[in-house]
Amino acid sequence: MTDIPLLSLTIFLPLLSAFVILLIKEDENSLNNIKNVAFWTSVGVFLISLLIWLQFDNTKPGYQFEEKFRWFSDFNFYYHIGIDGISLFMVILSTFLTPLCILASWESIKKRVKEYMLAFLFLETVMIGMFASIDILLFYIFFEAVLIPMYLIIGIWGGDRRIYASFKFFLYTLLGSVLMLIAIVVIYQLTNSMSIEELQGNYFTTNVQLYLWLAFFASFAVKIPMWPFHTWLPDAHVEAPTAGSVILAGVLLKMGGYGFIRFSLGMLPEASEYFAPMIMTLSIIAVIYTSLVALAQTDIKKLIAYSSVAHMGLVTIGIFAVNSQGLEGAMIQMISHGVVSGALFLCVGVIYDRMHTRDINFYGGLVNRMPIYATVFMIFMLGSVGLPGTSGFIGEFLVIVGAFKYSSIVVIGAASGIVLSAVYMLYLYKRIIFGVIENEKLKEISDLNLREKSILIPLAIAVIVIGIFPNIFLDPMRLPIELIISNYEIANGK
Amino acid sequence: MENNLINIFFVPEVSLAILAIACLMYGLFSKNNSFNKATNFATLSLIFISFLVYFDFTTNFALFENFFSNTAFTKFFKILTILGAAASLIISKNYFIDTKINRFEIPTLLLFSTLGMMLMISSKNLMMMYLAIELQSLSLYVVASIKRNSLESAESGVKYFILGALSSGILLYGFSLVYGFTGQTSFDGIYISLSQLDKLPIGLVFGLVFILVGLAFKVSAVPFHMWTPDVYEGAPTSITAFFAIVPKLAAIALIFRFCLEPFNNFYFEWSQVIFFLSLASMFLGAIAAIAQKSIKRLLAYSSIGHVGYVLIALVAASDQGIRSVSIYMFIYLIMNVSVFAILLSLKKSDKYVEKIDQLSGLSKTNPVVSVSLAIIMLSMAGIPPFIGFFGKFYIFIAAIESQQYILAILGVLASVISAFYYLRIIKGMYFDEAIEGENFDFTINNQAKAILLILLFIITFFIFYPSLLTGIVSGISLI
Predict the structure, then answer these.
(1) Number of Cβ pairs closer than 8 Å across A and B?
(2) What is the pLDDT of residues B247-266, one digit of tens each?
């Protein structure tokens, strides 16, 4: 271990770089400087986060890289950060996707580049900060602060209905998260502590747990999103610029899953047990219903957006099955979905930049002109479907195993969802990639350029690495997950 | 300390009264530029008075026959009031000159009004309370209609006067009932006389409710808010700034002291009224603002909403409630000063910006101004990491501590509704395209710029060192 506060560095380096960019005057010449500062900062942050992973000790269940300072003089709120095996990969996912997003916006963002980069760097700070927070108030502040850059990204650089989508996104998610604020204050009143670490266990009476659980549920269910609270997601995804969709699907949705694991399971085990059947029901509906909805879409982005809801349904099934396979599966599924759906949105961005439409019927036969594109798209498509050897398989398989321990009826729902996901993804792939080119406009379409390759190939590698060596991801999270499960079982007398 | 003649000048109120009269004379006898001179004089006087309040040379005085209380709470609110008044004078100076309402009576009247507010905050007797309220209101009635040739300004002045006079009448009737049933006019006397009762007699309940209604007019709590949007819109923006920033502070301090000092033992009776006022203000403030096109009306409804949150802390009725309201009002003050500092300096095609859709395209031409305004709006909406969030957070802490769950939950829901209209301003600046051929012009004098920069710095970076403020208020309680 070094004395350098690596974690704080990853949180605040993007913010610092945002200040540097703020001082650069935007004109023709400095445009590239702005992009370069943003890009290399985010690459640097990614490298630091890899360094954290290297130094990470898999044999400890608790938090590592902790930093703690007094924050408020009158209450026990601390600037308290640290990561364990659960948050480690969420942090890495954020730092991994951000440079790719900046790179993906290199050409496609033409207006207000400076503000765009500022928004992304601020977004990176709050994403990492949120996953690294141990203090609940700090967590909440980051959790809500995410709304600001995302609102601007959708609203300024989005599509035609961007204003509607940005307001819906902001108000819908805000409505969910304010109830969490009340729950947080109640927790503080009852325990005089704001530390996620100290509150892991069963410190509240059953009755209080139920109310707190519902308040947390309101915020995480909107964020993840669960059916029927998902309606903001398709709008936000469709209107957001490519990079915005990537971050939205790749990281922001994971905040919900992360919150369920940390708060609902970790702090409110009795209530989680009580509400688990409801979660399972909603998740199964989500998996099946949104898969069918996805099948009917003609907009590629909307299709992927609905598939996200379905995949996150599997995550919630895995989490609330509360056994090691289920939770590990949910975690891997979240990481995998972060990479795969992000990559799929980037793939859509590639053809959208060329043709400026996302209508499935417009495309067809792209394999003839874009062989490399067809290959990487296939890897991500198969990852989304869950083919063995890709990241999606590990997640889905473990979730199914976990769900079997919970109830076999749940498995029927979950598995049928997986089948449906294969249907809509393969059907999408067939319509876009295969066949002969019938549309005249597509005859001149060019294959991936160097920049696009350097974005998509790391993602493709990640999909396969997670699929073949899941243990490098599972090992660090094993002990923290065991801890949550044992707390949960003690609380519920199992 | 002895009660001799020299020391009496160190009483901030006495000293402010003398300075206000001096300001009037100064303005009257200076031949040219009288507005400028009077304004500078008034600003310096206010800063001087704030030092007097802060260092407090007069703690041991039995002032005005014990009509007067001097605690950490009153001190804090007085300093806020004085600094708010000084800041609003500084930020509106250019506007006054530009719109040719630069009459030296304005700073003088505002000084008298500030004096009235300081007395309001400290009053410990019904007589004193009434006189103080009238002193501050009468000055403000005049200022609201200072733009004599403008129909709107005159209308807003008359409206304010009639409704204000009505509320004063109701207030006075309430006083008479309280006096009739207790035989006391001092807060202490009323408290002692009430502490012998188990239950409030019906006449006293009426008296209490009348007084609360009168005070609700002054803080513009729903359903006694009708004057606020019209007066805000009609009065010149510089006067609106003063209305929005300063009198609220004094009125809030007074309503807190009135409920928690003489009527402390009858929490159940007044808390129902305040509960309703709070809830109605939060929701009406949030919902009515949605449809507004004028920024000034929008800010009026926003201030009504803010009063609703403050009243939550009153229903909580605890030490934490007192600390929370101190923090909230401090935050309210700096957010309003900074938003008005921008509005008072922002012109489009030679006209001051007053409508939301006039803001379209501001972010293209004036990126710094629009970022500042966006930060202030997010802060007002209570979105972290800006300071406004912490104001709301402290209010909710106070509410939960006193088990006011319903108010807390409905309060956060109202805050989501109100987020909508704050976002509309950001949308106007950032999402809407600029209209061709119209140029923004942002001219601001150096002092106002300095104030704006300091306040923006506090709004944005408060999160890194919150103890600065929480440390100051931690010692505040009513006694």
Answers:
(1) 91
(2) 999 999 999 999 998 888 88
